[in-house]
Amino acid sequence: FYCPGDQTVYIDLNFFDTMKRRLNSPGDFAAAYVVAHEVGHHVQQQLGITQQVDSMRGRTSEAQMNALSVRVELMADCLAGVWANNSQKSAGWRLEDGDIEEALNAAAQIGDDNMQRQSTGMVVPESFTHGSSQQRMSWLKRGLQSGDVEARHQVEIDHRPELVERMRAVLGQRALGDAAAGGQRRPVRRHPRRAGVRRTGPP
Predict the structure, then answer these.
(1) CB of 53 closer than 8 Å to CB of 189
(2) Which of 51, 52, 124, 130 is most buried (most C-beta within 10 Å)?
(3) 10 Å Cβ neighbour count for 96?
């Protein structure tokens, strides 16, 4: 998960076992997608999107906040795809079809509808906070195919041109792992899930 308070991604390694054993989502690139999604939340925090959405709490209904949360999560999925597209170009590695299939399968398995169906046997779209399997696959694929930060326009909270330019400045053609103010890397720590952070549950 991503903690905005200390701007750090915390990785619970047990979740990767859960992905393999319970969610049928094995593979290195499935794990890479999960990490890139969380770093995408750091990009959102750097751009003020996280703060913008959090400021709405208490001023709007639960259903509306859930809808905003879905848009934030889908944007992070898209940014994970943007990272993968650009990173392979800048770092000299190559995505294979099997890698993409692993990531898309992971996105489908952790969609709200699939998770709800597995846990309760019912699907309640109004309670979604991360997006359906189809939505998550679609926005990850959009980022993967375009490699362009503008690919996530339709899930963007704020469409101002200056925000797009700021995101371009933050991302550039670098991996999302470099996407911090001043170009410094933020740490990715192995840590069990902690209480008191904004994000809970699957990525």
Answers:
(1) no
(2) 130
(3) 10
Supply the DSSP symbol for 5.
T
Say which amino acid occupies 90: S
Give me the pLDDT at residue 70, please. Answer: 92
Rounded distance between C-alpha atoms, residue 186 and residue 179, angstroms: 8
> Token pair for residue 158?
């704020």
Q: State pTM to two decimals.
A: 0.76
Distance CA 41, CA 1 (A): 9
Q: What pLDDT score was predicted for residue 165?
A: 54
Q: What angle do CA 98, 132, 153 make, to 5 degrees?
A: 85
Q: In 3-state terms, what secondary structure has residue 182?
A: helix
198 burial type by CB count under 10 A (0-12 exposed, 13-18 middle, 19+ buried): middle
Q: How far apart are CA 128 and CA 117, in angstroms?
A: 12
Cα–Cα distance for residue pair 107/156, rounded to 1 Å: 19
Q: How far apart are CA 159 and CA 141, in angstroms?
A: 21
- pLDDT tens across 126-179, in order? 999 999 999 999 999 999 988 887 665 555 544 445 444 554 554 443 333 333
Check pLDDT > 50 for residue 21: yes
